[in-house]
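Practice problem: predict the structure.
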Amino acid sequence: MCWIILQLLILVTLSCPSCAEDETQVTDPCPEHQRAFGGSCYEFVGHQKPFLSAQAWCEESGGHLAFIPDEDTQHFLQRHLDPKKDTWLGVAPPASPKLPDSATVEGALSWLDGSHITYSNWVTSPQPGAACGHILKDSGFQWEAITDCNKKLHFICQFESGRSIVCADRDTTLQCGSGQVLIIHGGFYGRKNIHYCRTPRSPPTASTQHQCGWVDVGDSVTAHCRGRQVCQMAEVVNSISEPCPQLGSYLSVDYHCKDGRSH
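Answer:
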């Protein structure tokens, strides 16, 4: 009997490989209220907010609205979404008007980090003027691009394993598990992307869609967080001169967690 049960378990695992991916593809465990997949943690937020407010909510914890780069990610998200609810995605106009071929890539929309939308599941192709996108309810989880980004919808936050976005006006924390310490791989402070940490000073207009400046702060973050399990990023931000005073800056940090104390 035990042998039969074991064979059945093996068959189930082989027939649904993505079912086992949730807890195996993220280096550091996700919090209990998030789901792991493909090197990221995802939070399916029950609140309803306008697009910019939803992005700001994700940024509070170092993340961003979710990207869907491939069919596997699409299927993973579908397993956790309510098909009766509209849900924001991290889709916006290209971060720079000078991106090559931007006018021919999915109606000039991109993911918030500026990467091209190479996999898509649109109900209809995005039209000129579309400024944001969401998963459309009652559509079989297809996407819709719209101009009205002030609608209040549910949303998904994505927290990339080993990378955190820290807005200058928010006290984001880097944190490892018990018995672990932070190892910093690099970081910059400034603005490389118009869509992250948006403020009234940084509207998404053609005249401001460019990087205004940034500085390498990897050594500063390393010195501040060395040997710590928890590290407050506000202290780092406050110690750096503003490289982008017109639009405002944000901090991007690459890191991982390691057992024991750093040397």
